[in-house]
Amino acid sequence: MKQKHFVLALGLASLLVSGCSSDIPSESESSSSSKDPILETGYRIIQNGKSDYSIVIPSTADQTLQFAASEMQYFLSLSTGVSLPILKDDVVSYDATSTYISLGNTTLLADSGLSSRDDLGKTGYTLKTLSKSVFVISLTEDGVLSGVYDMLKESIGLEIYSYDEFDYRTGTDVPLYDFDISYKPLIDVRRMSYYNLQNNSTYNSRMKLFNKRHGYSEWLSWAHTVVTQYLPYSKYGKEHPDWYGASGTQICYSNPEVVDAIANAVKDLPSANDVGRYIMIGHEDNKNMCQCENCVNERKKFGNYAGQELNFTNKVAEKLESYMQENYPGRDITFVFFAYQTSAEPPVEYDTTLGKYVPIDRTLKMRKDVTALYCPIEMNFTEKLSSDLNAGILKQMQGWSDLLDYSDHERNLSVWTYSLYPFNSFIPQNNFGAFVDEYQVMSRYGVGDLYDQNHSTTGIAPFEAFKIYLQSKAMYVHDMDYNAAADDFMRHYYGDAYPAINEYYNYIRTYLDYLYNTYGFGKDIMSNVVSTDYWPEEVLFDIYDILEKGVAFLEPLAAKDPERYDTLLSRVRREECFPLYILMDLYFSDLDLSKKREFYDILVTYTKKFNIVCARENTHEVASTLEGWRQSIEEEN
Asked: How many C-beta atoms lie closer than 10 Å to residue 95's C-beta?
């Protein structure tokens, strides 16, 4: 084994970068009705391996509620061996002697006198024991599902680490607790775009993330739309060159014809499904904004690019208001523009008299059916959001939040944040622990809808399951102990390989901290993160050697529990894909033939197993790169 050049002398606490702004809003009151221990009622849901209880869902239950019921049934069965029946509410009735677990808006709920609470958001819930029955109540099915998992956590100690790794108590009894809980998650609507989440609805649901189990159905259009989706230059540019800026890659926001054209392009998007409510009027992913005289003058009037885009989106919404009411009655359609890159800075100035930000043009407000999606791509994600180094981001968030207040909007800011290095998925992003502070601070600024962009076109090798678990938990709970949760995850997810994985984790965190302090590594997520300066051969071998110790720790399991051995071995090998891919990429000619074969065999097996297909975002080059290495190995043989 090679000598380690970077000694792990720093404790985990010192790695969590400190520094906090005194201007950050204070945390709101607890969203739980009580922090006292939940007492048992004396009754049992399951006793001595038997039960009189049934799970009840509405007769019209959608896919999410049906899944919630099946999860309640599945985990209680794992814990006790008892499978509770699932019934529709049209065959049952409620009284004080009933023994039901009621999920969602059932007839039992109507008979009970209980009801959902508007102040808990879309994914909050009420969990209430009434006589011998339990009711899980929410405005949405996603909230009911979260309530089911939290009820199971209390009832059988359920902790879900991944779609295929959980911990729970076993026995023949499950007590009925006297539940009286109303819970609102830290962030109400929570989404992440890890490839293996997006393509595994069970995984997404078990992490309590919001997407209604069938994609981003609330978004009728998404991301960069104005040219790419609505007005392609190839289709309209020749006849209407004045609809675009000089590059043809952005629209002319001051041209009234473009308002009409965009309105016509989006007016029937709500017909795509019956739950969609957001229409994205998103500028393209470049900074080639229109510089015509009218656009320049509009930006002067409204303060900046964001002011112009807000004004444009208001006009589209105003033009379609009657059409939407007539053709899609009862639908809450909202038009969304990007606060991103050129438009990230809100069109506001600070009013010292009011002590808050107000529009530069006082006539500019967001219509009730218009909102912004703020994207802080220039944030330093290695640092805490509360750090003074991110003061500019905090100022922007405050400006957008105050603009919502000025517009008499509900204070519910939408944010698109980032947890990736787009130019290499094999390098772990150095945001360990920092995202806990990020989500907490965002919550205090009124963020209620959060999309965290990850590698959506590929699985990733380092720490994917680890970060999915910790990030989803950090979005959900109000008082997360990051270090305790990280350690708990590693002990369960990697089993007997834990000592090596913990060493690997500490090594990586310390080394990334060294790179950040020495080179500013990762300060900008769009920067290059792979070079021989950053990743010397000996460091990559150090990482591989540590992980090989984890493989050795698993060997006794091979004969004793082959299935568990294969599962844990795969998880360790997946982590090895990180150092091995970078070793092969940077030092292929320096490796001896036996190492090339060894590394290739691991890479070709586990990149395929875990859907690791891209190094750079959207490139899908991993298979062809591996094939090139294979051919070189064969030629050398």
From this structure: 11
Question: Which residue is it, tokens 């909202």?
Answer: 334
Measured in degrees and rounded to the nearest 5, phi and psi for residue 541 equal -70, -35
Q: Strands, DSSP E only, in 296-401? A: 334-340, 348-351, 356-359, 370-375
First to last CA, the chain: 25
Which of 353, 321, 354, 350 has its CA nearest to residue 335? Answer: 321
Number of residues written out for the chain: 637
Q: 90 near 107, Cβ under 8 Å?
A: yes
Distances (CA, A) of 330 to 219, 325, 518: 17, 7, 56
Q: Is 163 strand, coil or helix?
A: coil
Query: For 136, phi and psi rounded to 5 degrees?
Result: -110, 115
Q: Do 519 and 527 touch, CB atoms closer than 8 A?
A: no
How are the residues of the chain apportioned to helix, strand and coil, as percentages rounded to the nearest 5? 45, 15, 40
Whole-angstrom distance, CA of residue 516 vs CA of residue 527: 12
- What is the predicted pLDDT for the residue at 412? 84
Distance CA(200)–CA(419), nearest Å, equals 19
Structure tokens, 200:
């595994």
Q: How far apart are CA 443 and CA 403, in angstroms?
A: 17
Residues 6 or more apart whose CB falls under 8 angstroms from that of 189 comprise 121, 122, 123, 210, 448, 449, 450
pTM over 0.90: yes
E strands, 393-467, where?
A: 413-418, 447-453
What letters, b where the CB count within 10 A reaches 16 and e where it falls short, cover 509-529?
Answer: bbbbbebbeeeebbebbeeeb
What is the tens place of the pLDDT at every residue in 179-220? 999 999 999 999 999 999 989 999 999 999 986 543 457 899
Q: Which residues contact 62 (CB under 8 A, 6 or more apart)?
A: 141
Name 57's bridge partners.
88
**Do residues 576 and 504 lie in contact, with contact meaning Cβ atoms separated by under 8 Å?**
no
Is 618 exposed, middle or buried (CB count within 10 Å of its CB: 0-12, 13-18, 19+)?
Answer: exposed
Kindly calculate the radius of gyration of the chain based on its CA atoms and give it in whole angstroms: 27
Compute how many other C-beta atoms are within 10 angstroms of the C-beta atom of residue 67: 20
Provide the 3-class DSSP secondary structure of residue 357.
Answer: strand
What confidence category does residue 32 fall into, taking pLDDT thresholds of 50, 70 and 90?
very low
What one-character-per-residue DSSP string does 110-145 give? HHHT----GGGTTT-EEEEEETTEEEEE-SSHHHHH
* Percentage with pLDDT > 90 across the chain: 91
CB-count burial class (<10 Å; 0-12, 13-18, 19+) for 360: middle
What DSSP element (H or E) covers 100? strand 100-103
- Backbone angles phi and psi of 2, in degrees to 5: -75, 150
The residue type found at 494 is Y
Residue 166 bridge partners (DSSP): 160
Residue 365: phi and psi, rounded to 5, are -135, 160
Rounded to an integer, the average pLDDT of 393-399 is 97
- The conformation of residue 229, written as its DSSP 8-state character, comes to I
Of 287-301, 409-423, 564-578, the least confident: 409-423
How many whole angstroms separate alpha carbon 449 and alpha carbon 571?
32
Q: Which residue has the tokens 């981001």?
A: 393
